[in-house]
UniProtKB/TrEMBL annotation:
This is Pentalenene oxygenase. Belongs to the cytochrome P450 family. The lineage of its organism: Bacteria, Pseudomonadati, Pseudomonadota, Alphaproteobacteria, Rhodobacterales. Pfam families: p450. Keywords: Heme, Iron, Metal-binding, Monooxygenase, Oxidoreductase. Heme binds at residue 406. Its EC number is 1.14.13.133. The keyword Secreted does not apply.
Amino acid sequence: MTTPAPLPPKPPARADKVSLWRYLRLFRQDILSAQPQRLYRAWMAEFRTPFFRSYMCNQPDLVDLVLKQRPDDFPKSDRISEGLRPLLGNSVFLTNGETWKRQRRIIDPAFEGGRLRDTFPAMWAAGQAAVARLNTAADGKPVEIEAHSSHAAADVIFRTLFSIPIEHAVAAEVFDQFREHQRTQPVLNLGAFVPLPKWVPRFHRKKTRETAAVIRALITQLTQDRMVAIRAGEAPDDLATKIMTTLDPETGARFDTEEMVDQVAIFFLAGHETSASALAWALYLLALHPDWQEKVAAEAHVLASPVLPEFSVVSKLRLTRDVFREALRLYPPVPMMVRENRCPETFRKRDVPVGSQIVLSPWHLHRHERLWDDPDSFDPARFATENGKDCLRHAYMPFSAGQRVCTGAGFAMVEGTLLLAQLVRAYRFDLVDERPPVPVAHLTVRGKDGIWLRLTPRD
Ligand code: HEM
């Protein structure tokens, strides 16, 4: 008899009924384990408090309504900016309405399919650098892999955006300061999920504002230098140059330095934490399923050429892509998103008053027991089944959906697939049995005490 494959770790659920204060306390620790088990089966859940009402929507057509059919009626809540504004200013992640639309018109062309091909050499170089960095750690002793995936993802962002590696003095300083910033801000989106009245003390800290100022000063330096290079006709053809030279097709205006700094900050924050989390979980899942790891290693032989491969090589990494997709399903880096309704709504025969919190949860949707076959198990082959294909269309949104879909979705899929293949081609990844990861969500879904693996060279 064969033993069933182990299920990947899932956070414990809280008791069904708890007081508001207990909920807030649990929420501060981790938004995943603060939720009850029933949300994995519910189509909608209402949460009433004296201060606000929130509605988690898991029913695919409700999610569709909010994100795709009438997104302008469900803007991002201003409360999201509670903790983010000092760092992100007026970035595309926080804005709404006409400002947001103008920003997307300038940013989106830089991430279109054709441009992805241009960023490929920089991604490849970042992957090779990650393989080289891990060499000293590949001695069979436990390694905390999130720290490495974070380093690699930050390297990808700096190389593709500004054509500089993470070793560059300013890039390295931004990376360090970001880590410090996140340490001072334990629950980034608390304000967005739990809109407390004004008299409740906020969790803002002086240190958060200070690190945000340092990061913005560093990014301003990079942006100003680039502006000078663009004027001199000496700028490299990377994402920063593309974005800074794109005119809004409707107004003819460009980003000024300050608005560009806001966008660079969000590219770094949204593009590095998320990709790092997904890559670390994908490596963990492959350690848990050595059969899949061997398949990925075999597929990665297409990367064997000593010279830089063509961009088209990514399309040959289909199985690796499905592994990465499955990692994004089980551990969506952005586990929940919040919107606010502008108009009175009726959801599932219940009145939803104006200004309620509409919570969309990739975490619950991706593990929904009434939608997915065997939702908690790791099975990249599911995407070839009828259920998998159907759920990909209606119950899978690691990058959100609709007009506010992640700008970097295509970029992140290429990056994740490529780096996963490069790493697994070079090393074997094994579990550290004594240190199984416990998923928790702060800014992104991470291992509570990191994600520990043992690495050994394959050759
Ligand atoms: C695996 C990697 C990634 C995941 C899972 C991810 C996920 C998401 C999600 C769920 C959102 C929507 C958030 C919301 O509406 O509240 C988002 C927005 C965004 N992401 Fe990503 N992201 C990833 C990588 C990237 C990368 C690499 C970049 C850029 C280089 C990026 C840039 C952005 C930006 C600018 C937004 C704001 C879009 C808007 O509001 O119009 N992301 N991302």
